[in-house]
Amino acid sequence: MTRLLDIRGLRIEAQSREGRTEIVKGVDLSLNRGEILGLIGESGAGKSTLGLAAMGHVKPGCRITGGSIRFDGLELAGADARLLRQVQGRRIAYVAQSSAAAFNPAWRLIAQYCEGPVQHRLMPRAQAEAEAVSLYREMRLPDPERIGARYPHQVSGGQLQRAMTAMSMSCHPELLIFDEPTTALDVTTQIEVLAAIREVVRRHDAAAIYITHDLAVVAQMADRIKVLLKGREVEEAPTREMLAAPREDYTRSLWAVRNFQPAPRDEPAAPEPILSIVGVSASYGTHPVLRDVSISVPRGRTVAVVGESGSGKSTTARVVMGLLPPTAGQVVFDGQVLDPLSRNRPRTLQRRLQMIHQMADTALNPRHRVREILGRPLEFFLGLRGRKKEDRIRDLLDQIELEPDRFIDRLPGELSGGQKQRLCIARALAAEPELIICDEVTSALDQLVAEGILRLLDRLQREMGLSYLFITHDLATVRSIADEVVVMQNGAVVEQGPKAQMFQPPHHPYTEKLLSSVPEMDPDWLTRLLGQRQMQEKGAA
Amino acid sequence: MNALLKTLRTAPLSARIGMALIAAYAVVALLAPLLAPYPEAAIVGAKYLPWSAEHWLGTDMLGRDVLSRMIYGARNTVGIALLTTLLAFALGAGTGLLAATLGGWFETTSSRLVDVLMAVPSLIFALLILTIAGTSVVALVLVIAVLDSTRVFRLSRAVAQGILTMDYIEVARMRGEGLGWIIRREVLPNASAPLIAEFGLRFCFVFLFISALSFLGLGLQPPTADWGSMVRESAKLIAFANFSSWQAATFGLAPLLPAGAIALLTVAVNLVVDWVLHLSSGLKE
Asked: GO CC: one term (chain B) (predicted)?
């Protein structure tokens, strides 16, 4: 094994309005040919900055203040633009998190694939196209001969991510950097992308840095794992060693997240349902999205709705909230049939039914301060004013574990992702609701932060007897917090029942597929799963 | 207010120059009667006097003091332009935000109406209306405001449509907030940056438009001083000027002075607008 990349004592500084802050504080990193290194840590740990630095690139506003980056004998820290151009894209390739944003929507996939090798004068266009087709085949894209002729919006998210990985291989790079390539994908799609990436990296004998916050994913992909926290290295060890025996407390806490269990509660005998969705069908225009969906949420319980994207989970929430009138069926809340449209519902009913969105970023008005965000529902629903309102805002901030004095005058832009989501929860709580619909509230957050949110929701449920309709695609979350589980596919309910029963075989085939697609912490899991699926396919054929 | 001051302090040099120039224009316009050495329309000397200590910028073809007319012109031209722009914004932004938020028939009708207005070349349209209605200041302001409000309508509607897709609007709607709250408290604060930038640009266009109409003889009527008609009155002099001596050459500069005043204000406003646009784009560098 020869050393390909050697980073020593790297320091990177970011310039912001408040001055300079060091975001990478002296990190060492080495990588041999044919090796995959996993970089993990929560957001803000400096994973992406380090990943980009490995190709000699820093984001605008950042600069390298110390250390060296040696790639195959070349010094990339402070190298001139000409040298970087020769290396970037050609010998080192980068795969970004959002392939939809990384592709130019106006060009066909294959044209974008060929741009690199042709520009770098590595091969004529015809050869590049031929190689593209063979890589598309390796990446197990459907119809590899013709898929290159499509535009980015004409293929699915998982296919686009694979097309981007193929594109990154176009110049036969020696080093690939993957920055959370599967974070935006469903579990079932994630498997395919992971398998394809792993195979392609191995076959071409390239080295790779795999950046993610998902431990189970990194366990499948990496030979070695490096854990980062706030710009510093926590520990580094071969994958199996680290999984078996993490040395540092921080690493152990990352591991522990997956084992979150809510506090046990006494089980009253079959509480009456607070919300019943009865035979609801809905469509966007003429395109049907929900077919005869019936779900009921018992008072004080959590019902989790799971499924891939496009399965109709969020649409169900929109129907309940009165944003999309159903074409058939009705929604019953605490014995009353709800009007199909939110604006026709009495204010008292609107108050008792609240929703928390997936993206806290877009759910908070960026020009409103915390005081106003929490104050408005208090004023609107409860008629609180002046001193009383101020006190209640402070209570709410206390409840979501944000210090009132520090946070009450902030704008959403001055909060972290987890704090924003907490604020959204507080806004829902301000109305003193009985049922909260949580639409993927943790999926945009990294695991430690997500765990904090789940703990908070669990505590609030115990203290106030709230009921949750919890929409998610993450089965680990379901396993930890749900009382009942509803599995949806293509706008219909496939299976539903108490959690214990749902996680016990026998499963509906779709549930089986979902369950088996959730990465496990076992490094052999992906290999085993792929083996099993191949066997099944052979059996079926 | 504090936040505004803080933002002002971060303004780059170009924006500071722009703001200083605009402030200077404003002072001149507001204090015109105090600053001008002679009355606006009085004949105070011989025709076409060259620059001298008595008449700093000479006199025009009737013997009126050019400097005084320039100073009063600032008040008339800039004041009317500002009033017109404000009116155009009240009209355009109001209907634009309302159309985006309400949707439905109101949006369709107002959008098609705006399309029709925009299809007619605005200068021709203004000439037509002013010829029919007569060239009073009120007619001038109304016609230009209505014509310009179409652009503001389009911009504010497009900006609002982007904002209305955000989840926080959905949250407000689920809460049962009324139309007024949604437009004023949820949409407007987020649309303000592009609207302010557009305000600066619109102001320049209105200003040039009034000058253009005055140049054509349909804007402000004599003897009211305004820069557009001053350019028109002295435009031909540039061809007859004798550039052999310094004194004689000033005669040829006559049309360039009001034209320069127009150009300088336009540049100044744009320097500030550039900066506001930059702020609203959210770029850090």
From this structure: plasma membrane
